[in-house]
Amino acid sequence: MIDHALPNLAAWIHALEDADIPVLPGTALNIAALHEQEEAKGNVDAHLLTQEINSDPLMTLKVLVHVSRYCTRLNVEPPETLTGAILMQGIEPFFKAFVGLPTTQTWFEGNPTALEGLHKVVLRARRAAHFAYSFALHRQDEDAVIIHEAAMLHSFVDMMLWCHAPRLAQLLADRLEQDTALRSADAQQSILGVRLIDLAPELMCVWQLPDLLIRCTDERHARHPQVRNVMLAVRVARHTQYGWDNPHAQAALPDDVADLAELLNLSPEAAYRKVHDLDE
Prior knowledge:
This protein has helices at 9-16, 25-41, 46-53, 57-74, 82-89, 91-98, 104-107, 112-138, 144-153, 156-164, 166-178, 184-192, 196-206, 211-217, 225-239, 247-264, 268-278. With 280 residues, the protein is an all-alpha fold. α11 runs antiparallel to α12. The longest helix is centred in the middle third of the chain and has 27 residues, at 112-138.
């Protein structure tokens, strides 16, 4: 476990690039059940596996990293989607690599506060992915699936902090809760010694993840429509994570909705109705 801020960005990358990633208990159960089904009937395919695991950002990241490293060894471009990654690996090698995974339930045994912190980030990631996919469909973006994955993975470093530096993750969460005017990046720099906006793309590059996925999660390219799509979905999910009527949401949503209206070519009223209805 990482208990103190590391000296620089390179140290954080070194600490996390080979760190294990637990998965949600439901994901482990689904994979075990599909493994039994495959051994009994042989009728499990990549699309079925994707349906069972793509709501788990931890598992999604785990698979993409594993397959991207495999592709690097073969000197081929990594697949851009979870389904493509499973197809590239093959069903039998997938089960060989991913049966009997560590789960968050055992990983955080004795630390329910950290488990709760992680689950909040996972829930926010799922909501962001749902928003992002719907926005992309409205825009008729042919990369809607990748945009969904990018929004799902946008907060992956937050999740890894809860897994590998829970004390620091809790300090960060407490600081932001106590001072709602404090910018997240400033709090991160103060507590971690780095900004997550800098750490995330560097880790993804080290893992050799697909270029399009890296770009769609990188806020430094926020003018690109696909990146704006992801960022707005993440913003709305974050600002409304405690409801649409709480003071934080009420203060932040007008700007979110105005930007979303511009992205989707809708009136602000129509944009608000669209995103609000998606959350029901």
